[in-house]
Amino acid sequence: MSTESAPKPTIRFRGRNFLALVVAPDPPLDEWLAHLDDWLTRAPAFFKGRPVILDLSAMKAERSEIPAIVAAVQARNVRVMGVDGADVEWLGIGTPAQLLGGKGDPAPEFRAEGSPAAGVAAGIVATAPEIKPETPHGEGDATSLVLAEPVRSGQQIYFPRGDVTVIGAVQFGAEIVAGGSITVHGPLRGRAIAGVSGNARSRIFCRRFEAELLSIDGVYKTADDVDPALIGKPAQAWLEGDTLRTAVLD
């Protein structure tokens, strides 16, 4: 009889990146929460199903105040998965964990057009692009991404290095995030967020406008803010100062 024991199963650890939003409150908290409520009224599905990181660095809150801040945000159906900018380890089980090392990409500040700050900073801190960009001829990283298939509801495409072109539709609940411009050769029904690398010259183009949200370099418009005459038409969006302009494409 063999005395050898059966091999023990190995434990495998794999790294994986995910798409998350950074929400950064500014003092005074009551005013910021009012801005957040306004945002949720304009875009009620924006945070649905999304992991959110709460950046408390601007609040300079006392430790005893942190649980109330987290609770106030979570009470608005925002899923706070972690906290940055504050030491929360001592708060114990049930408190979102403190996150480290999430400073790789700059987090763009989302603000309503014409306003220096709308109170909600939403930045991409981790990514899970479902379609890998092809490297163009020559050396260096790809500076453009072409998606040959429609972007489905719930799909999130993040490409901070340049332009994104979609050969097809961007469905409701889908999102395109680009460092440069976004071009959709079909209906744009989801969210198009361009210029996240600080490129105010970025533009958004689509063959049929039905978007939930547009943003360029942090300045945003929701569907309620757009001229109804654009619905169903070829359209473009661009920045003039702090104003996000939209127009029908001739």
Automatic annotation (TrEMBL):
Signal peptide: none annotated. Residues 11-79 form the Septum formation inhibitor MinC N-terminal domain. Belongs to the MinC family. Residues 147-245 form the Septum formation inhibitor MinC C-terminal domain. GO terms for biological process: cell morphogenesis; division septum assembly; regulation of cell division; regulation of cell septum assembly. The keyword Nuclease does not apply. It comes from Alsobacter metallidurans. Cell division inhibitor that blocks the formation of polar Z ring septums. Rapidly oscillates between the poles of the cell to destabilize FtsZ filaments that have formed before they mature into polar Z rings. Prevents FtsZ polymerization. The gene is minC. The keyword Acyltransferase does not apply. It holds the Pfam family MinC_C. Interacts with MinD and FtsZ. Keywords: Cell cycle, Cell division, Septation. Gene3D superfamilies: 2.160.20.70, 3.30.70.260. This is Probable septum site-determining protein MinC. Transmembrane segments: none annotated.
